[in-house]
Amino acid sequence: MFRDRREAAEHLIDRLAYLKTENPLILAIPRGAVPMGRWMADALHGELDVVLVRKVGAPGNPEYAIGAVDENGRVALEPAAEHYREDAVNREVEHQRGLIEERRRRYTPVRSAIDPGGRIVVVVDDGSATGATMAAALTALRDRRPRRLIAALGAAPPETVARLESLADEVICLETSRDFRAVGQFFADFGQVEDEEVIALLGHERD
């Protein structure tokens, strides 16, 4: 178990230390991974931005992911989505698209997203159960032609890591457990990250 997200970030920094001379682009999945991304970008002498993807939750059970939508509007649904009414799923997709648009306006109001083309890109999340959100992020970024695409996570089950290995050039997952119930089980302190903190972290320039 990690003390908190900072400890997980420090372990990821150790694993990615070889990138310190490469000016990597660290793309954090909001909101929980943004503090991790800030520490990683500073330590690895890179840039920080967010990659905006949203989990599509099951109608009536929003914590259960049945897909994801990315900032380009692309939707990737899991097989489980077939068990729900199409109109209900579509409403959830449109709701998440709206949240993505609103978050980009709030998070980076004075600039557009940083172009990942030709860059070494590290997509970071504190953890992932199904991998739906991370998979959507990796797929969207691959279309932007990064030089190298790395997924970095605190915790995930083995089958999720295997899924992501088909989408990224490298996957670093600190904790893989078959007894995976929720990301929070791997952190002693797993406090919620608010929008105000995300905005402050994205506006912070490293020394």
UniProtKB/TrEMBL annotation:
Domain of life of the source: Bacteria
Keywords noted in UniProt: Glycosyltransferase, Transferase
Ranges where the Phosphoribosyltransferase domain occurs: 9-180
Any coiled-coil regions, as ranges: none
CDD domains: PRTases_typeI (cd06223)
Pfam families: Pribosyltran
SUPFAM superfamilies in alphabetical order: PRTase-like
GO molecular function ontology, one term from the record: glycosyltransferase activity
Full protein name: Phosphoribosyltransferase family protein
Record organism: Halomonas saccharevitans
